[in-house]
Prior knowledge:
The protein has 673 residues and is of the alpha+beta class. Helix content is 46%, strand content 18%. The chain has helices at 2-16, 18-40, 56-81, 91-128, 135-165, 170-182, 186-189, 191-194, 227-247, 255-282, 289-301, 499-518, 564-574, 581-598, 618-631, 636-649, 656-672, and strands at 217-218, 222-223, 312-322, 325-335, 341-343, 350-355, 358-365, 368-372, 379-385, 394-395, 398-401, 417-424, 427-434, 444-450, 456-457, 461-462, 465-470, 475-477, 480-485, 488-493, 531-535, 542-543, 548-551. The strands form 5 sheets. The protein has a 10-stranded mixed sheet, with no helix packed on it. A 5-stranded mixed sheet has the order 19-20-21-23-22, with helices on one face. The chain crosses the membrane at residues 20-37, 57-76, 101-128, 148-165, 172-191, 233-249, 261-280. This is ABC transporter permease.
Amino acid sequence: MRWKWLFVFYWKRLLKSKLYVGASILFFVLLLVRFVLFFSDDMNAGMEYSGDLPSEVFMLVQIVSLFYIVWFYFLYSNELRYGVSSWFADGYRILLEKMSALLAVHALCQGIMLMMSYGVFSLVYLFVGVEPSDLYWSLLRFLAVYQFGPLVLTVLYGVIIALLLETKKVSFFAMLLVWILTGPMTTELFIDLSKTVHARDWTSLLFIGKHAIQQAYDSYIGFEVDRGGEWKWAAWFLSLVGLALLSSIRFTQTRKERNAVLKAFLVFPFLIVLTAYHSLQTNTKAFTRADQTTELEEYRQMKQETKADLRYRIQSYDISLHGSRAVVRVALSQLDTNRPTFQLYHLYPLHSIEADHQPVTFTRNGDLVTVRLPKRTSTLTFSYEIVDTALIPYTNGRIVLLADRAWYPKRRASHMYRAYEYRVAGTRAWDGAFTDQFVPNETYTFTLNVDGDVLFCNVPKRGTVYRGKAQAVTLIKGQGHQLVDQGYEITYPADWPHMAERAPTVIRQLKKTFHHVQQIASTAVSSLPNKIVFSSSGLSSFMAHDHLVYNTNFFSIGTYHMERDYYEKMLRLSVPPKGSRIMYNEWISLATRWLMQKQGLSVIDWSSKSEWFESQPSSVKKQIEAIYQAFQPLDVDQKQQCLRTWYANMDDGWTWDRILEMMQEVNGVGGRH
Length: 673
């Protein structure tokens, strides 16, 4: 009964507090301001990354949490100042009941704020046109972990500081320090440290927020919510409750009370370690800076020139995916070696390889697996685990397995990803690409048996399995939507709005641009694939005969064809590299400008070169600049002829001087006409 009256008492105190209520109102005022700023940004006109809107709560939580900590500190320290609890025989019990009642009242208020925030975000999503899906449920889960959770802990911060320091002046410094070190913006404030912390390092337990606060949503994977974040909050909560109990021990009045508190406190280390361990085991790598940096660094260290024996032919694949377990049966039509090499993502634990139902040995060198066969065989069976990594995230049962990733054994002689080093203004820089950006032309028969709901697969569904011929397979299990427009099957992320209205414009622009590209170069595929997968982050881009994966890099899908990036990407997706890297890149750079001019776009920067330009010797730079100067005054048809001739003849013997001569010849012919 007394706890009930304490709950009512603190509820009334909270509602009458100008500081507490003002901080809560400030939260929503700042949220509305952020929405206004977001919508006023032209880059957000298409709302292609509206899924990242909830990341605004990290800054807002950081701001208002200071006010909450101060209010709870003053409230509790003032009660302790007069030692009212010591006036009663069960004074220590009263003190604990006050703490629990205050925590319950604050949790109730934050629960109300959580639902209000969820309502605001949901209304914004519905307003911009985000279609109903389980995205809305995961939004609630995201806000519960990253808004409700950290704000609930503020009552414990204030109470613990009050118990330890009471009304001492140093308590203000303590509150400021706690606010900085425990806020969800910690990873951004100490970014140099957070960049080095991996998802499953024990150090990650020190961060209650995300490692990269700017990105809250990943295409098809969803919000960064998993059991790891929830277990981490539980570990923090238990740690703070245990610390509050330990801090209150000096207020006990009898030895019996002190012993009871100590016995209860002994349970907390076990519970904290248990929850922390579960947090590390279930934490995702999908949104963590350090994991991606480490993974890319591994590829930089891998020897690019590797020994691979490809004297075999693959006839078909039979792939079984149940949960995270993958079993792939590879049927061979030809085998002329006892040491065949396959490409398989090196971070996938490979449990076994069997030949004719008998285990065989194998070795791994990066993404290359060499099988040691005692005799020739017609089938090989690979058993391995699909795990969560930076390049292929696997979170909450959602996964995006793209055709340019080595998620099943492939007949390749290179690693899945290749890193390139170059210099810009004398500074060392790195770039990289997946080696299957241009998927080889040979086709295989694929049979996929997959559990769960599949959003997209480029292989047609036959009954309960997916079966058909393809160059490679893309499989998506995650949040997203699909529609059909002009015969094209379009797959897009769950946070993209109004795609049914915008798809016709997008398809027309893709078809038109691809047609123009074919006027200047031979493309890897003969026509625009009729299955298109869009994303705004996370995925790479590539084009196969039967499907296209296109990452807009946060540009609006409805307006991105007005930007240079769109035309450059379409060229790189469809036109295979030829000749030297610098010459191919400068061809892409000029061809991009020709495509923009073909579309009648007026703002074209003719002086800009490719990113490889700065790494060239001065003599080569002068030659390239001369080519740009000769190219710009040509009319559209002359530019088309130059680009077509350049690409057709581009090889290791094709020189900059020869390109310049060709342009001058075309200009002379055009001038005579």
